[in-house]
Amino acid sequence: MDWIEVKVHTLTEASDAVSELLVQLGSSGTMVEDRADVPDPDHPSGYWEIIDPKMIESMPEDVVVHAWFQPDASFRDRMQALHDGLRTIAGAFPDAGSLRVESDQVHDEDWSEVWKQFYKPFRAGKRLVVCPTWESYDAAPDDLVISMDPGMAFGSGTHETTGMCLQLMEDIVTEHTRVMDVGTGSGILAIGAALLGARDVLAIDIDPQAVKVCEENVVLNGVSSQVTVMQGDLLKGHEDAICDVCIANIIADIILLFAEPLKAHITPGGYFLCSGIIRERGDEVEEGLVKAGYTILRREERGEWNAFLCRRT
Fold it and tell me: What is the DSSP letter of 171?
């Protein structure tokens, strides 16, 4: 199969944001199916006079954004990133519709098995290695192996955004570090921080399914004593949480919104590691981070994505 068509059900107000998200995730293009784009046949103008009114009746009641992806090794991560981004869109728009996702050409349950053939052990940094639970790996003496079963949560480690975070984490997380992983997904970054020696890790996600998967992966990797998994919307309800390193692998808009209030949760001289930023918005995010009071230590680019390692001033 050459292509997978993905359809997201939404409403007019949020359709542009959904379309932009799909493009950011690598869609070859999008098409928006919206009744609001068709003028009222009772008040014709120009060529719309020859349009059959039944055309509108045949269109879906809500807005459907169509996108097309190749079913390669990154497809599953892209789809989980889509669900993560849609949760953000749901919080940003008063009425974004159902945000239901459909895949026309491949059933979800079929793809959930097919993609496993592409997910093999790989080295994410100098020491961190990611290994799916159904594979074996002969670890070197200094390797820190993250055993992963992403389930229905974003974060197998193969996506560029996650990979950059894992690599950058190795330079800033030590045995004395307190870490917050906001939008934890599968928990891969929180687990990586714990294996690097972080003494205390708070992993937060708004999606109850992600929280469940994260909790299972934390137990699987034997880091339950270091990692606390909680459901929440960013840091709402965690106003007293303090960390030395905050990791946020989310999207540009949320990072820009989140950066300034986040400073109150990071110790002076601490780090903010953020990723999930499409390359075209990298300069905008860098400017926003500096304006919010961070010093940019490193800006990484991988594929179409940017990640920033910043220090709180």
Answer: T
